[in-house]
TrEMBL record:
Its EC number is 2.7.13.3. This is histidine kinase. One of its GO terms (molecular function) is protein histidine kinase activity. Residues 423-612 form the Histidine kinase domain.
Amino acid sequence: MKRKSLSRQIYAYFLIVIVLSLLSVGAVSYVQSSRALDDQVKQYMEQMVDSANYQTDSYLQAYELLSNAFSTNSDVRAFMEIKPDDAYEYYEYSDKIKKFAFASMESIVTLYKQLNMIYVTGQHGRSVVYENQNLFFNFDPVLVQEKFEKLMRLTPVDGKIALLNMSIRTADEGSVVTMARKVRGPSYKDENRGVLAFEIKLDELAKTWDRVSLGKDGFFFILDNAGNYIYPRSMSGRKSNDELASQVLTSDNQTFLSKYNEEERMFVSRKSGYYDWNLVASMPVKELRRPANTIRTTTIIVGLITLAAALWLAFRFGRSIVRPIRNLKDSMRETEKGNWQYIEDAGRTDEMGGLIHSYNLMVTRLSDMIERVYEAELEQQKNALELGETKLEGQRAEFQALQLQINPHFLYNTLETINCYAIVQDSNEITEMVEAMAFMLRYSVQTNLEEITVANELNHVRNYMIILQHRTEREFEIDVAIPPSLLLEKMVRLTLQPLIENIFQHAFPDGVEERHSIRIDARKGDGLFQVFIEDNGTGMMPERLAELRRKLQENRLAEPEEASSGVKRGGGIGLMNVHRRIQMVFGEAYGLSVDSEWGRGTCVTMTMPETVRPRLRNS
């Protein structure tokens, strides 16, 4: 494996840190600035298009108001009913309509330059035309009739305004846009008899749109809802509903990118809220991102200069660090050989001087420290081993002392002999007592079983009750409410019977009466198995209950002098022993808990872990 010097490693680390820092800062700065510039340009274009759209709607609304005035004018409505060959009526209404148009234009000065002409034409083929420059003339009736049929076909029947890319004069085609609506006769019930139209000059209206500054290669155009290009004239020759028009109509007022003349461009479209016009602004993407490209180039140049300067400083800094370390390395090699070599610190007061000073101290104390460390380690391991063995032996002795407080083997053999004599003498009471006692002794000497079932413990309690009934010559039944499904749950041996014995000794001090009862119940859940032993005896005083709970919490056995207190009786297994036995088998988290009320009884709860049984497969 090729070895690398520390100076090269430091230089490589500095290179990685510097390059990563420059790349991350440069990339993030470029991406964020590009994104910010794109958003700013997009917002700028959208604001300009929105402004142009608003101005256009304002102008068109003014023309609509003027159109409303014309369509409701009585002379205009009456003109629709004149006879085609009545020259007098035609001249009379034509003069009135022209005067009304002149008066209306004088009242709205802002529309003067934009209006090309106003004309009213009816089904009878006669027309009244008012030009903006106050020149009055009549069109050829045949020509007007051709245009009239087109106007009647394209304008809505409900009298609403329609914007049409047409003119009744061939010379004005492409330079004006027509705002037209149908006009009824004098009666509102009559059908539409004619058309009222305003021709608006696109060049004058375009002065509002030309305020949209889109740079050198940007342009602005208007598209109607049918896909026809209305403005400028250079685009009016394009086919309707071409690819660009389709994208605009389907963009739903959203900004999109598309290729136009082999160049990727950004298009900002806004649909007029007043008429079916789409105002669209476009700029090349490369022009939009020119500031971002400038930022990128500047970032790269500055980054390269910074990288070169940083690498030179890293090289000088690395050499200043590595030189004393090399001297220390050579001295340590001599130390490995057993040559305890000192290093001259040359009066250094920095970290390297401290390191050299520490090395010199290490050399002087190394042999003694190694010997002491080994001795301390051996002593510590020896003490830990002895402590573990002592603790294990103490737990084993305590467990055996709790479990084998008496040695019943010889008693069991003696009881078998007594049982034989009782059978010979035909004494059923003696036989029953001896058998119960024998079963209890046999159960107590099974030292190889620490975890048995609830059913085993209940059988042990039954044998105890047989002996107790013969001793007291009084029958007493214990209410066992444990569900059959819990009889095979695991518990500690010789824990249930001592609690029953404790009840008879302390809960019923004046003897067992008819009202007295003992109930044994059990339940499991949340990973716990609990057995409840409840009586309705005398109960405990509050101070005695508090003292008992404290000792259960301290996990210590009762003292011999406490025999008269009811917690432990000489030669028996009391509550504290049962509590400690459960903890020694299952752990400190389990054991006994006591609830009692003076004069009403006591409930002792035995808490153990829930038994997890394997599932049986269905055959």
